[in-house]
Amino acid sequence: MLITHPASNFLGHYALRDLAALGVASVGLATRYVGNDTTLIMENCVLDIAAAIGHLRGLGYERVVLVGNSGGGGLAALYQSQAERPDLTSTPAGDPPDLTAADLPPADALVLAMAHPGRAQVYTEALDAAIVDETTPFTRDAELDMFAEKNGPPYTADFLARYRQAQIERNRRITRWVLRQLAALADRSHPASSPDGPTPDDLPFVVHGTAADPRFLDPAVDPSRRKLTTLWGPAWAANFQPATLGHVTSLRSWLSQWSYDHSRANAPRCLPKVSVPVQVIYGDADCAAFPSHARQMYDAIRHGDKELVEIKGADHYFQGRPDLAQEMCRRIVDWARQ
C-alpha cells in the first residue's frame, strides 16, 4: 500500500501501523512539496508517485495499491489515469513535465480513502462568494454572504444555487487575472545576461476567504453526522486565518492546483479512464470530505469492479476513534486481497 497526498507528510501516516499489523507492507509518500503547497504543481506530484511505485517494483513487490487519502484522492486518480492512458504533455501553464514521455508504472488497484474529488473542486466549494474585491475581503456582497443572518442557515435552494455559481465565477475571475499576470511576465522577460538577471517566471499572491462552504454551517446541505465546523475551527475565523487551505499560492500553482477549469487532479474527470479496481471509503462524520464527494467519485468509475464503503462515526482524522481507523484498514485490506 502506497498512501499519497500532494503536500502532507505521510511518512508517519496513522494507517501505516494498522496496515502492517494486517500483514500488508505499507509506506507513506511525501512529495517534493511536503509541508508547502504555495508553488505546488500537480503534474510534478505525478512524477513523485511514479518514482515511489517504480522503487517498490524494484524491491520486488508484485502488487501495489495506491491509496489517495484526503487531498490525495484527486492526485491518485490523476496518476492512475495517466499511467494507463497518458495524454498530458505539459502543465496548465505550458511547462514541463510531458507525462506522455514519462515512466509511470500503473498501480494494481486504487483506494480513495476519506478523500474529496480534488483540491480545485473542494477549494471552489469553500471560496467565499461574498468577496467582490480580492484586496478587501470585508467589502462583501450581502446577497451572497453565507455568514449574514438574513441568508441562513438554513439556506434556501435558491441561495445555494446562486452561491455555488458565484463561487465558480470567483474562481474563474481569479484564473483570468492569473493568466493576465503570466502573460505580463512573459512580455517582461529578458535574457540572463541582463544586468538585472532573468525576469521571474512566477509570482505569489494571496486569496482571502477559503473556508466558506455552506456545509460548514447547515447540516441539511449534504446531510451527515458531521460537526458543524472546519478542519481549522469555526468557519468565520477559519475563512480568514492565514493557515487555512490555499491562502497563499503562486500564479503557476494556481492553474495546476486550484483553478476550477484548469487543474487536472480531478477524480470525477480522471476515474472514467481507470481500468483497475477502485474502492471509495468515506466517514459519515467527516467535515472535509462529504458523502456526496464519495458518491460522485464512485459514480464516475465506469467499470463494475468498484466498492463504496461508509465508516459510521468516522471524522476526517478518526480523532479519538482508533478503532474506526482500524476498521477502515481492515476494509481496505480485505477488499484488496479479494
Give a structural overview:
- The protein is of the alpha/beta class and 338 residues long.
- The chain has two domains: 2-118 and 265-337, Rossmann fold (3-Layer(aba) Sandwich); 123-257, no CATH class.
- Helices cover 35% and strands 10% of the residues.
- The protein is built from ten helices and eight strands.
- The protein has helices at residues 15-21, 42-59, 72-84, 119-124, 157-188, 235-238, 251-258, 267-270, 291-300, 322-337, and strands at 2-4, 27-28, 65-69, 109-113, 204-206, 248-250, 278-283, 306-311.
- The chain has a six-stranded parallel sheet with strand order 2-1-3-4-7-8, with helices on both faces. Strands 5-6 form a two-stranded antiparallel ribbon.
- Strand 7 (278-283), helix 9 and strand 8 (306-311) form a beta-alpha-beta unit.
- Helix 2 (42-59) packs across helix 3 and helix 5 runs antiparallel to helix 7.
- The longest helix is centred in the middle third of the chain and has 32 residues, at 157-188.
- The protein is globular, with a radius of gyration of 20 Å.
- The mean pLDDT is 96.
- This is Alpha/beta hydrolase.
- It comes from Phytohabitans flavus.
